[in-house]
Amino acid sequence: YEKIIKRKDRIQLISKMAKEIIIHQFNKKYSSSVLQRYINMLNEDIKNIKPNDHLKIYKETYGEIIDECKRTAK
């Protein structure tokens, strides 16, 4: 925790870790569905919340998870 919290890229690092967990531990179809709904909510939040850099990172990460789930589900 101490090493992570001091890093400037901590949000990206935690997002990458979450991405790996979600892709490998949850049903891909379910993950895609839930994350797509969450991305839709994030789009609204990004418009209304400033600063919103963290929200943009989450949106990008969840989009990558959806893409990976679609690729590996085939």
Structure description:
The model has no long low-confidence stretch (mean pLDDT 92). The longest helix is centred in the middle third of the chain and has 21 residues, at 28-48. The protein has helices at 2-5, 10-25, 28-48, 53-73. It contains four helices and no strands. The protein is an all-alpha fold and 74 residues long. The chain is flat.
In short:
84% of the residues lie in helices and 0% in strands. It has four helices and no strands.
What is the fold's blueprint, element by element?
Elements: H1 2-5, H2 10-25, H3 28-48, H4 53-73
Helix pairs in contact: 2-4, 3-4
Spans of at least 5 consecutive residues whose pLDDT stays below 50 are: none
Q: Which class best fits the helix and strand makeup?
A: mainly alpha
- Helix proportion range: over 70%
Number of E-state strands:
0
Dominant shape? flat
What integer is the average pLDDT?
A: 92
Task: Enumerate how many helices there are, as a single number.
Answer: 4
Descriptors:
about 70 residues; mainly alpha; 4 helices; about 85% helix
